[in-house]
Structure formats: structure tokens, C-alpha cells
Amino acid sequence: xxxxxxxxxxxxxxxxxxxxxxxxxxxxxxxxxxxxxxxxxxxxxxxxxxxxxxxxxxxxxxxxxxxxxxxxxxxxxxxxxxxxxxxxxxxxxx
Length: 94
What we know:
By secondary structure, the chain is mostly helical. It contains six helices and no strands.
């Protein structure tokens, strides 16, 4: 089994994902429309692991978006899934 990142590492990755999504008006608008979560509410809940896990889950649900994120961040492709697992408290594979 692959080792999960520690909580702080997972949180940092999720915060980087939020920043990456918000930096682009198309991506942020698509996030808001797809999830129904207003961007202001997202910004107000960045200290909540469940919110951070939801952001990662959103990325995991769109392969092209996920691949763009990991390429832009220069991270291993599996890190968003592993970080989601840590923050959501699940041991189930995506």
C-alpha cells in the first residue's frame, strides 16, 4: 500500500489546488458552477479538512483538470488522490 502524506502535507497540497483553481477565471467559474459552492464560501472554509478534501475530489473527478494541475504544480500524479484520502479519512482507493 502507498503511504499517505501527513495531514499538513495534504492540507498544503489542497490549498495549492484552491489557489490554482482561483487563479484562472474559467476554472474558478467552472468550479463554482459544478459544485454550487460560492467562491467566497470556499475562501471562508479553507481551514476545514472536509472543504479541502472536496476541492481535491473535484479535481479527481475531471481527469484533464487533474492532469493540468499536477503538471502545473510539478507533483506526482497520485498526490491529489493520496491527499484526498488523508483529508477525507478514507482508506478506499479512488
